[in-house]
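Researcher: Going back to the complex we discussed earlier. I've cleaned up the inputs and rechecked each line, so this should be the final set. Can you rerun the prediction on the complete assembly and write out the structure?
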Amino acid sequence: MIKTVVFICGLVVMSFEILGSRVLAPNFGGSVFVWGSLISVFLAGLSAGYYLGGKFADINPSSRKLSLMIIAAGVLLLSFPIYSAPVSDWIFTKDLGVRLSPLLASLVLFLIPSVFLGIVSPYTAKLMICSLHTSGKTIGTLYALSTFGSIIGTLLTSFYLITIAGVNALIIGQGVLLIVSAIPLFFMGLSCSRENV
Amino acid sequence: MIRTILLIVFCFIVLPAKVSALEPTEKLIFEKNSLYQYISVIEDTVKGERYVRNRKREYAQGGIYVNAPDKLLFEFTQMGFISLAFLDREPKDVLFVGLGAGAMPRYFNRHYPEANIDIAEIDPDMLAVAQKYFYLKENEMMKVHIEDGRLFVKRSKKKYDWIILDAYQNDYIPFHLTTLEFLKEVKGRLKDDGVIVTNITSPFRNKFFDSMIMTYKKAFPHIYIFKGRKSGNFIFVATAGRKAKDRNEIESMAARIQSSKKVDIDLSGIAARFELSTDYEWERAKILTDDFAPVNLYQHQKSGAQ
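Model: Rerun complete. Updated structure for the full complex:
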C-alpha cells in the first residue's frame, strides 16, 4: 500500500513537470531558458524535499503525517488552475528578461509542490524501517519505485494524456490522485514508537 | 563470440553511415547542433539547389537556387505571396514569425523596398546560417529579432498590415504558436483589414489540419485556402476585416501585383487555386487552445473528415 503511494508520487512529479512546460509556454515561450528553469526548479524542490523528509522522519514519524504532506501537495495541484494563469500573466507583465521571467514563474508555480513530493521517499523509508522493521533493501525498493513511477508519468503524459484532456484538467486529476491515494495512509496507523527509534 | 563482436563492429561502421547518407548528388556543407535543433546546409550539386534542413534527408526549412538566389525555390514560399492580394493597399509594416533560410523576407524586401520588416526567430544559429549560406542581409528596413515568436507578438506594440506565420521545428509547429489564444494575440497586432498567412504542412489530411482550420475559423471571420501542387503544403489566408473576398477580386488583384511589382512567381496561377475554408471544415475537430493542443500526436492521426 505505502509503496503504491511512493510510486504514485513519483509518477505525479514527472507528469506535472511535463505539463509545466505547457503551462509556461504561452507567457514565456518554448526557449531553452524555459526548459532550464523548469527542470532546475523541480530538482531544487525535490532535493529540498529529500532533505526535509529525512529531517522530519526523525521526529515521531507516522503514516498520518505522511498522508497530510501528500494531501498538501494534492491540494496545491487541485487549485493550480486557479492561480497559475494570474501568476504567469503577472510575471509576464513585469518583463524580467528571457531568463529570469521563466525562472521566477517556475519557482512560484512548481517549487512548493515538488518539495512536498520530494519529502515522500525518505520519510516513507524511515517509517517502513522503524515500524515494519524492514531492512536497507526497503530504501532501494522505494527509490526504484519512485523513479519507475516517474518514467511511467513521463511517458503516459507526453505520449497519451496530452491528447485526451487539457493541461488544467490533467493537473487537477493529479491532485485528486494524490489525495485519494493519501487518504488510506491517514488511517493506516503506522508509526515509530520510541523503542524503535 | 567473435561473430557477435564482428556483428557489433559491423553495426557501428555500416549503420550510421547508411542512416545519415545523403542522396548521391547531395553534399553537406554545414552542420551544427544549435540550442534548438540540428541544422544542416545541404547542396544538391546536380539540381543546383541549396537547402537548410533539421534532419539530413527530411523536409527542408528553406532553400535557394545556387545560381539564382533571388528566385523563390519552394512552392510554399511562392504561394505565401498570394496573401498580398487580400490587402487593399501596399503593406507598410510586416512581421515574419520564423526565419528559415530567409528566402521570403529577402524576396519581399527586394520587391517592396519601402516596407518595414520585422522577423522573429528564436534560434540565433538559424540567423547565422541564413546570413552565411542564404544571402540574408539585415538592413534599415529589415530587422531580425532573436526571440520566441509568441513572446515577440505579445510584447510588440506595433501594428502590422501583413503577418506571416511560418515557424517550424522539424515538421511541426511548436504548440504555443498554434492555439486560439496565440491567434487572438496575432490578430491584436493587425491593422484594420490586415492579413495573416500561415503555412501548414499536411502531407496527408491529418487531425492537426482539421483542428487548425477550426481554430483559425474561430479567431478570424474569413479563411481562404490555397493547396500546394508539388508539396503537402496548405496556405491559410486569414483576414481581420469584416468583408469577404471572392475569387474574381483575388485573381484580378494578383494579376495587378504581378505586373506592377514584376514578381517572377505565377501569382495568377496560384490565385486560381482559391478555395473557401468551408470546403475543409470538419465541425467535430477540436479547437486548439493553450490548455489543449496535442500538435505532435494529431499530426500522426488521420483526419476525421471524409
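Model: Worth noting: The longest helix of chain B spans residues 2-20.
Researcher: Good, that matches what I expected from the previous run.
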